[in-house]
Amino acid sequence: MSPHKLIKRLVEDAGGALPVAKAMGIPGFQPTLHKICNGRVRSPSHETARRIADHFGLDVLAVYDEAIAAAEWARRYGDLPAGVPAPGPLSRRDELLASARRGRSPGVPQETPDPALLPEAFNRPVQMTRETLMTDPGRGPSTFKTVLEDDALAPERPAGTVMVWDRAQPPKPGRPVLVKDAHGRFHARLYREGKTPESWFGSPRDPAYAEFGSEDGAVIYASACWALIAES
C-alpha cells in the first residue's frame, strides 16, 4: 500500500493535519503534512520523514516503503484497506529491519538510510574485512558492509555492529564515516567539519580511541548508510 494512506489514517485519527502539526510544535508544518496525506509528496525529505515517524512511533522506512507501510497498518488496525493485498513473506531487507528493531537499545536511533540506497544496501552487500579493505585498490563495490571490531562508536554502535557503507554518499556532520589513516588502516569514526572548507575530523564516540583527520593525511573512504545493532 502507498505509505501516504497510512500517514493519512494516522493524521485523521489524531484530528487532522493542523492539530498534528501543533502537537509536533510546528504549526507551519500543516501544509506539508496535508500534501503528504493527499499523496502529492511521495518522497519527503529525511527530516520530514523522521518528524512524522517520531511523532507516530513509526519505523521511518514506513514513510517510504509500501511493504513496511502495509505491515504497520495491519499491526495497528488489524486489516488493510480495500484493494490492498496482504504483505507477503518478509524480504531479506525486511528481515534485517526486524532484526535491527529487536537488537537496538531503547532510545538509540538507527541510521536513517537514503531510500535510494536501500535496494542495493540490503541485497546481501559484499562484506569487507580489515584485510580486504587494506588490499582493495579502490575498485571494489560501491556499497559494502563491515563489522565493527572495537567500541570507538559505543554505546550507540558497539563492537559487533554491522555497518553498511557507501562510497558515493557524502559525509554528514555527526554521522559515521570509514576513515583510512596514513598507514592504510581503517577506522569507523564520526565526521566533524573543520574550520576550513577542506579540513575535517574523524572523532571517536569513546575518547579512549584516537581521532583522525585531514591534517593527519587520513582520507574518508565511505559514509554509513545503515547500522544493524548486534543482538545480545
UniProtKB/TrEMBL annotation:
The protein's name in its UniProt record: HTH cro/C1-type domain-containing protein
Lineage, opening ranks: Bacteria, Pseudomonadati, Pseudomonadota, Betaproteobacteria, Burkholderiales
Record-level Gene Ontology MF annotations: DNA binding
UniProt xrefs under InterPro entries: Cro/C1-type_HTH, Lambda_DNA-bd_dom_sf
Domain of life: Bacteria
Region feature Disordered, mapped onto this chain: 100-121
Organism annotation: Aquariibacter albus
